[in-house]
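Two entries, shown back to back:
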Amino acid sequence: MKVCDVIEKKIIQGQRIMKLSDSCEMYVSALEETKHSKPGYKAEKLKKKLEKSDTYGQTLPFCSLNSGGKFKLYIVYNSDVSTDRCVTLAYELGSTDIVQHVALYLRNMTAEAF
């Protein structure tokens, strides 16, 4: 699935949010299937590309999240989504990350035990 299709279906029509890093991973995967593969493509570069886009430039704002680390973390959302809805979606997205992190940790601990 193309990144534009995902952005259109999930973010614009579905009124969801997405981590920029996830969008970038999809973009890199999509390019690997072409002769224009860019394995080291940076999320910041995709962000600039989307911001300059005639299609998405005014529709997709980016919110920088203070991750407290060396790297910046951005979420992408539909500008028509209300602030309270974005906060709810960001919380759900963060909760999903925590659940995935815990599941991976438990899986690794179980694998090491056996």
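entry 2 starts here
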Amino acid sequence: MFPAGGAGLGLALLRCGLALALAGAVPSASLLTSLAWWMPALVLACGALLLGVLTPLVSLAAVAIAAVTLLSEGADRWEQSVLVLLMAGALMLIGPGAYSLDARIYGRHRVLPRKPRG
């Protein structure tokens, strides 16, 4: 869940790319006027992705944001919404990587078998 080295760096780059793509996948202004919470939530989601905090949950939120954008915009901006869907899905399944606050908070744990009682 927290790979280091090249894989961890790749996941950090994926998180940064998803944050940038998500910032550009904002729906049209007509939908935003009815959703006053949209922009603060988007800023928090992008910041959490950059830092690697609660990455699977934020990735799930990114999937929801991209789905709303895809359904509201239709054929106008489908490429960016599909890109966000794919990146967020991959990040949600793979995890944040070693270079994230999730790795620092939850860390790697070594599970050792118990000695038999007797």
